[in-house]
Amino acid sequence: MSAETMLHFLNHCTPEEKFGFRVVTQCAPVLKGVKISNLITMKPGGWRKIRAYLKKSRIICIPLYADAEKEVLFLYRYEQLERHLKNREVLEFLRSCGYDRFDVASVLARLRRRYQRYAGISEEFPHELGVLLGYPVGDVQGFIANRGENSLTSRYWKVYQNPKEAERIFDLYDRVKEQALREIMCGRTLAHVAVS
What we know:
This protein has 196 residues and is of the alpha+beta class. 57% of the residues lie in helices and 13% in strands. It has one domain. The strands form 2 sheets. Strands 1-3-2 form a 3-stranded antiparallel sheet, with helices on both faces. Strands 4-5 form a two-stranded antiparallel ribbon. InterPro entries: DUF3793. It comes from Ventrimonas faecis.
């Protein structure tokens, strides 16, 4: 889709359509069911709007952090995240980050506390967020070990191992993003863009 087409849409759309466009731009893979979760940063009140738009979908939206200027929101699919948390490599990584309970609610409660400390008083970034966003554990470990440098490639995340598989996933994310943007620009709502 061309930049001109998107700019034309954004210059002539309603506030609700612009909101949907923004959510789709940042969260299409989770909306389309090919990714466990996504982060999105919104102005205050964005959390309630997203929850209202997606209330009939299988996507849950929780705030990780909020202040007077922004909300950092975590959108996820419960069943996919629950399955992901049963992966041995994921569990071992979360244990190394101090997690001792691995049900969805406990993991997200701890992540939220850690993210709030990071955002509020500049503590260390909670790198487990990458694993909870579905990034491969090896890539998250590579990011930590290399301090974000020396990646083999990057688009949706920085890749430190298996770049061919990462590119395949990136291409999938690009395709569903294109599809979701077309749907929003044709007048579909976020609720209709989100697959159940």
